[in-house]
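Why run this: before we spend reagent on co-expression, it is cheaper to look at a predicted model of the complex and decide which construct boundaries make sense. The entries below are exactly what would go into the expression plan.
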Amino acid sequence: MAEVEETLKRIQAHRGVVATIVVNAEGIPIRTTLDNSTTVQYAGLLHQLTMKARSTVRDIDPQNDLTFLRIRSKKHEIMVAPDKEYLLIVIQNPCE
Amino acid sequence: LAAMFADGTAPGADVESLWRSARTKSCQTEQISTVETAAQSHTSRDATVQTDQSKDALQDFQQEVQVDYTSLLSFLQRVEDAVIKELNKNWKSRAFDGFEVNWTDQNEAVLCLHTLSYPEAQDQNLQVTSVSWNATGSVVACSYGRLDGGDWSTEKSYVCTWNLDRRGLNPQHPDLVVDVPSSVMCLAFHPSQPALIAGGLFSGELVVWDTSRTEDPVMWRTGMTDDTHTDPVYQVNWLPDAKHRNNSRLLSVSTDGKILVWREERDGRLALAEGFAMVAQQIPRSTWLKKFTGGEAAVGVTSLSFSHFDHRVFIVGVEGGYSLKCSTAAETLALHPTRSSVPLRAPAELAFSPHGGPVYSVSCSPFHRNLFLSCGTDGQVHLHSMLQTQPLISLQLSKKYLFCVRWSPVRPLVFAAASGEGDVYLFDFEKSSQKPAVSIKQAAGECPVYCLEFNIKQTQLLAAGDATGTVKVWQLSSDFTEQGPRELNRLEQLASEITD
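The model came back. Tokens follow.
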């Protein structure tokens, strides 16, 4: 349990990282550095988007699969590392 | 000899059966067996439940969900390297420098979309004293009155509304006109109920109208009681009511020095819930204020703005020319001469450096917790941080009075100001810290623009009302409606240029 927290702390401490959220397979957030309502919003929306992105990749080529998802917006970049059981969401404010 | 034959009958002979016997049996049907089956349900299950939207914090989800830490750890160990690599790449990446996407049509110039007026009010030489957009952003209301009315005015006034999204909009013919016996000085639509609008009158009263009622739109009024303001009400705001979530309270500000909060009673009356009074002796003094010759300056309050970040903090602008930072949590009682049904408190905590004349308008930034703007009769706009008394920036925008200043609801670095010369200035700190980005001529001649409001729902619209009795709805160009990527950082930079 301590190693989980340390790993998350390492990611959160990286330059520019604004927030880190871990979501389980049902789309329920289990670790977060944001407030509850924002976390639930991010978790729900990104879970759906990741599923859609994954099915897009596999529909085009069934031998292929989604490994990483990055969304760049005006204000920051959202990175999603997907997995069978969990989803790691990291929000970073890029330099400039 | 004949024998004697006679007729005779003989009974028959019965021969009983030897083998058959008879027995009596009942011939009624037997009892029909019945079984009770329930006809009414005694088990129930909820199908739908209606709940009010609750603002209570969501339960801590971390305690409810079972987490398998070993699988979570192996997942994190699997993805950590990939994520760190991407974070590093992103930090150093120059791939998106200068890359911007346009999602909406670009409007290049500022256009006047509508010119609205009520000819009957204009014939009486009434001026537009206040404008307000409703909760949905499609209706604009204006109040007609006189701002240069002098000491006492018994002039009638009007509140007019136009629905800009309606087909067949006639700019000279408002959708609704409410006759008001006294001059209306300020208006505010309810933040979530699109039909309710509150107005403050010259007589010191407050009235709330329901624009969906055709017969008598008046819903609540304060009437003339001991609690009512003794001077005109210059600003009215709706406050969210902490206890009853669906109700709101009204706050009114007047030059008699009182800031009063009203709640709605059942009989259509507005009753005083709490109040504050600004008394000169209770204004916090600082060294420069003692040098300021207007030491016992009038503390008539002309404007008020709540902080968007801390709902107990508000800024007021006073006739004496300075702005004050106040708190609703203040507990000291005010030494106010007049009696009122609810004890009035003294809310002032900090006094800011003054303008060269009365402050007419203050506005707290929706993007930064410490920044606010104030403008007044000296034609200047001051950008203040709540952390220091001296303004961060002072801008001389006009040679005449500035009547209203408002931050843009979408662009953190933009604000609009209404001047006595008939111009609406749009200022953008990103483009220039000295002169306005755009200067819109609202009215010909030197006809003052008294009020302006941004439309929060349709962010490209700005309504401004002037002394000729017209309300103009301006459509702003795209660079005023979309937040740039570095704006919040630049705003933060501005706010931290604090001098010692």
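The beta strands of chain A are 17-24, 29-32, 69-72, 77-82, 86-92. Chain A touches chain B through 38 residues (CB under 8 Å). Bring this page to Monday's planning discussion.
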